[in-house]
Design goal:
Elements: E1 3-4, E2 10-11, H1 24-50, H2 55-62, E3 65-70, E4 73-78, H3 79-104, H4 111-136, H5 153-161, H6 169-193, H7 200-218, H8 224-239, H9 247-253, H10 264-280, H11 292-308, H12 311-335, H13 342-349, H14 352-378, H15 390-399, H16 404-414, H17 419-447, H18 453-460
Antiparallel strand pairs: 1-2, 3-4
Helix pairs in contact: 1-5, 1-12, 3-6, 3-9, 3-12, 4-6, 4-14, 5-6, 5-17, 7-8, 8-9, 10-11, 14-15, 14-17, 15-17, 16-17
Length: 461
């Protein structure tokens, strides 16, 4: 049942609970935090399914073949592969959009401000790889060196959200920038190091499609349809080329236009005139359904609103919910399920892959991020964000050890066809992420105090 407030607005049930304006950064953090909590629950569900009476059904469902054919051409993959190679392309598309926005106008757009998270992220990728290599160099798990290099932004923000009112917004911004640089590093590692035998003709085809995407951008094409068609062709080309198909998402994202159709400086004047015309056509009922003139003005206004924002912003906003609340939970559901009986866990804990992943994520991330940030500040290359202490950076370094999504993704690629190594890596990822989250939470809680209401208002201003 709908009801009308004294402000002249109509609300559906529960609508008011979601009716608060946020800045783009606040909206990003809020949605990513909520997605992190959902991701935790889905990962737990996967573990329950894998260790219950439904275990055989769960593992069988992952390998159900799904495909289609056109004439003699057949494309068939398991359900597991469709989610990892297909749906996850949307996740990588989102990563690419976020990276482009951050580089243009976000935390990474100011070189002086961006230098600290960039240096910290590089250290946070190098040291985990070195720690992992110390356990596995020359062994069968050697290819997994990229597994502990990535930080899961959704999980990390989910943990730091539990400290709301204790940590400054600038520390959250540092964590977001750090994780986004981390994602870029993981994307480059997958592209360069985790490739199969390459097909030169298909790589040339993919290069040609990429040039067409760039050409669309340079011509000022803002319609999503041609980008979607070319992105699909790019994904198909990369799928058979030896380079991981999900990179099509990142490549396409960087070609999405970041310029609006209309100048925002003229927008206010046009809107003011339309509002005057809109009010002059006011129906007695107050319902726009009874006024075609008002509806026409609304259509024009909607077109202007779309034109004054950029395709980059529109797509990032539109895709954030389906990626965060469908794609990533499905990825967790099909990838987090491992058998956790006592014998298998004890066996995995003695294996160099599990040990390398755990030490890499817990110790490597802590040392890499904290030491790199400290050296950058001491050398005068960068400065700490306003209101942030070095001890808080150490706390974020602990949260950097939460490596769920991208770490599992790299494990699946690096150890493809080696079930035991994948299982060992996933156990290490889950245990390290859990320990890093707990340690990071309690460390940050111990070194911070609740922020008073005036201080919160000052941070928000």
């Amino acid at each position: 049942m709908h009801h009308q407030e004294t402000t002249g607005r109509f609300f559906a049930p529960f609508e008011m609970a979601f009716d608060r304006l946020r800045t783009p950064f606040e909206e990003f953090v809020h949605r990513t935090t909520t997605a992190g909590l959902l991701l935790m629950m889905t990962a737990v569900l996967a573990l329950v399914l894998a260790n219950s009476v439904l275990s055989s059904f769960y593992f069988h469902a992952l390998h159900v073949p799904v495909g289609f054919h056109i004439g003699d051409w057949l494309l068939e993959k398991s359900l597991h592969h469709w989610i990892n190679d297909g749906l996850m392309t949307l996740f990588f598309f989102m990563v690419g959009l976020e990276l482009k926005r951050e580089l243009l106008v976000g935390e990474l757009s100011d070189p002086r401000q961006a230098l600290l998270p960039i240096i910290a992220a590089l250290g946070g990728m190098l040291f985990p790889a070195l720690f992992y290599a110390a356990f596995n160099i020359g062994g069968e798990g050697e290819a997994g060196w990229g597994i502990p290099m990535a930080t899961d932004i959704a999980f990390a923000l989910g943990v730091i959200a539990l400290l709301a009112g204790r940590v400054p917004k600038s520390l959250i911004a540092f964590l977001v920038a750090l994780a986004i640089v981390d994602d870029l590093g993981a994307v480059l590692i997958i592209a360069v190091f985790y490739t199969e035998s390459l097909s030169v003709p298909l790589l040339l085809a993919a290069s040609g499609i990429t040039l067409l995407l760039i050409l669309l951008n340079r011509l000022g094409v803002r319609s999503y349809t041609p980008y979607f068609i070319l992105a699909t062709l790019l994904w198909l080309a990369l799928l058979e080329s030896g380079v991981h198909a999900t990179l099509a998402g990142v490549i396409t994202a960087f070609t999405i236009p970041a310029l609006p159709r209309y100048d925002s400086r003229d927008f206010g004047q046009r809107v003011a005139q339309w509002l005057t015309d809109f009010n002059s056509e006011q129906p007695a009922s107050g319902n726009v359904l009874h006024s075609q003139q008002q509806f026409g003005l609304l259509q024009q206004l909607n077109q202007q609103i779309t034109g004054v924002s950029t395709p980059l912003q529109q797509l990032e906003h539109a895709l954030h919910l389906p990626v965060a609340f469908l794609v990533l939970p499905l990825f967790a559901l099909v990838n987090a399920g491992i058998i956790l009986n006592l014998d298998s866990v004890l066996h995995s804990l003695t294996q160099p892959v599990t040990q390398g992943v755990m030490v890499g994520l817990i110790v490597g991330k802590l040392v890499g991020i904290a030491v790199s940030a400290w050296l950058a500040v001491k050398a005068g290359l960068a400065r700490l964000p306003e209101g942030v202490t070095m001890m808080q950076i150490v706390g974020v370094s602990l949260l950097g050890g939460i490596g769920f999504t991208m770490s599992i993704f790299i494990a699946e690629i690096g150890f493809e066809g080696q079930a035991q190594l994948i299982n060992d890596a996933k156990l290490g990822i889950l245990l390290a992420s859990l320990l890093s989250g707990v340690l990071g939470y309690f460390f940050l809680r111990a070194i911070t105090k609740p922020v008073s209401v005036p201080e919160q208002l000052e941070q928000t201003a």
